[in-house]
Amino acid sequence: MMASMLFTAEGVTKKFGGVTALDNVSMSIARGAIFGLIGPNGAGKTTFFNTLTGLYQVDQGKFTFDDKPLNVKAPHEVAQVGIARTFQNIRLFGEMSVLENVMVGRHVRTKAGAFGAIFRPPSVHREEAAIAARSHELLEYVGLAKRAGDKSRTLAYGEQRRLEIARALATDPKMIALDEPAAGMNATETIALRQLIERIAGDGITVMLIEHDMRLVMNVCQHIAVLDYGRKIADGTPAHIQKDAAVIKAYLGGAHGEPAATGEKA
Ligand SMILES: Nc1ncnc2c1ncn2[C@@H]1O[C@H](COP(=O)(O)OP(=O)(O)OP(=O)(O)O)[C@@H](O)[C@H]1O
Ligand SMILES: [Mg+2]
Question: Is the dihedral of CA 251, 200, 79, 29 positive or negative?
């Protein structure tokens, strides 16, 4: 029986000049799943996130989200449809506090908007306390409550990645898309990240995970799609993906420079 799908991509193609970053890519994500999107460097993973979140428009193909066409024209619109993301290159307001960075995410959902979060005209004060309280809860959720008052630039790299997740969760998404959340994390932080991802999914938020840490991907994901040179070369369970000849060839072929950052099996 087919699980109910939250997200579907059909025949998505995106070109940058002569580079076909995404070549007729289709995939589906079941509601509540932890879905992995993997592939060698330059395979098109981030471009896939960028197209579905409205940073770029596709050349061909379409997305469906929550039983409706997903047609985001600009990145700020994506939170309204229930999708949140983090970035491969961390994007935080370094001079703002950890709490304020989460509040910016929360303000996307309010009348005052992100502008109000930054400039605080008197009209936003009523909403402010509720937003701060919810943002504090989210900092507890990701294990950063003790750092709430610190400037975000003072956080360690792994903490900044968790802060980005808290800010994304602040928009109350149905799906969160994480672009290499384990990058720069040590083994202990990565274990905590795995628990956080499982908790997010357990709370009913579908997770789409781009990650080079194969141990994490194989342990946490129920379903994985593999991109290589913009094309989907495999799709299935972790056990299936680990045995797939095309996947092994893509990672060990050497044409992309480094193979997987961590090549261990789960
Ligand atoms: N804005 C852009 N302009 C031009 N080319 C781009 C742009 N964004 C991505 N590309 C190209 O598209 C291809 C896919 O890049 P993308 O960043 O999606 O790969 P990736 O799978 O996320 O790789 P990595 O694992 O290194 O992050 C690459 O050849 C890249 O150079
Ligand atoms: Mg990328």
Answer: positive
- The amino acid present at 164, given as its one-letter code, is E
- 100 shares a domain with 47: no
User: How many distinct structural domains can be found in the chain?
Assistant: 2
pTM: 0.89
Cα dihedral value 177, 182, 187, 191, nearest 10: -10
| Ligand 1 pocket member 14 (CB < 6 A) | no
Instruction: Decide whether any atom of ligand 1 lies within 6 Å of the 21 Cβ.
Output: yes
**Same domain, yes or no: 152 and 51:** no
- pLDDT averaged over 10-residue windows placed end to end, the chain, 266 residues: 84 96 98 97 96 94 96 85 91 92 80 59 71 93 96 93 95 96 92 96 97 95 97 96 92 57 40
For a ligand 1 pocket test, name from 14, 15, 19 the mutation site with the most ligand atoms within 8 angstroms of its C-beta: 19
What is the domain extent for residue 146? 91-172
